[in-house]
Amino acid sequence: MSARQSSLDAAQILVEALPYIRRFSGRTVVVKYGGNALAGSSEDDALSLFAQDIVLMHSVGIKPVVVHGGGPQINSLLDRLGLKSEFHGGLRVTDDETMKVVQMVLSGQVNPQIVAAINTFGNIAVGVAGGDAGLIRAVQRDPQLGRVGDIDRINPAVVQGLLDEGFVPVISTIGADAKGEALNINADTVAGAIAESLGAEKIIYLTDIEGLRSKVDDASSLIQRIQVSDLAALAADGTIAGGMIPKVQSCVQAVKGGVKRAHILDGRIPHVLLLELFTDEGVGTMITPDGARGNVETTMGKGA
């Protein structure tokens, strides 16, 4: 490819991005960065690419909020300590020892890692814990799950204040109950609740799969667009299972609560946020409110 052609291609990309930049400038976009996406790939520094995307979004006027998990990192440390990982319905059973590990990994390792990566490209990221200023108030879900919490309420004031000052909040998802005791809350659930509380334009989930499939074992059945009622039906019939359950539940709740679009994307794809936000075709799975244009659209064709 000639230098001239390369320049023309770059110019075309910018032209394609322009209407999306105008549309989303000034809008809040919540990005849930999953621990599986954080683990990266063998070819690219996934965290660095993610950080570049966040800084570019911020630079064109979008207000990103990052909510992160850390499941693989928690599993790794539990294994090294000889502690067993157990899950029920996609949620980690969290006894007191596991809770200490969760806090250590999320607040002491993953959160500073993401903040530092973003600040390499622009000093705009600020780490926020779920207990800060009562951001995430929670109640214990089930004694059998241990210190696992359900969200009681979100106080978005600290996050909104940072956004208003031009910062990017990076939120770890350990909430606190009325007594100040730490509770482990599913990061997908937190991301959806925060997006709803902020009146976000979009919520984007980055994980280690390309999106939702209508047939679990068939990569060609990627669902590109689906309405919330159809998504709930897929969860009810067992098509969606395991760790995808809380992610889908969060999507449904957020969109029903006023977030305009939810997206599930493969965070291992270089610059996947930019591909979704600023290109005509987009990538992954988009969840829309009921009544939006189209119904279920997959790579096998509409309604497949």
Descriptive notes:
There is one protein chain. With 304 residues, the chain is α/β, with parallel strands linked by helices. The chain has a single domain, classed as 3-Layer(aba) Sandwich (Carbamate kinase). It is 41% helix and 22% strand. It contains 10 helices and 16 strands. It has helices at 3-24, 35-38, 46-59, 71-80, 96-121, 157-164, 187-198, 228-236, 244-256, 272-278; strands at 28-33, 63-68, 87-88, 91-92, 125-129, 136-140, 149-154, 168-172, 174-176, 182-184, 202-207, 223-227, 261-266, 285-288, 297-298, 301-302. The protein has a 10-stranded mixed sheet with strand order 5-8-2-1-11-13-14-12-15-16, with helices on both faces. A two-stranded antiparallel sheet has the order 3-4. A hairpin with an 8-residue loop joins strand 6 (136-140) and strand 7. Helix 4 packs across helix 5 (96-121) and helix 7 runs parallel beside helix 9. The chain is globular, with a radius of gyration of 19 Å.
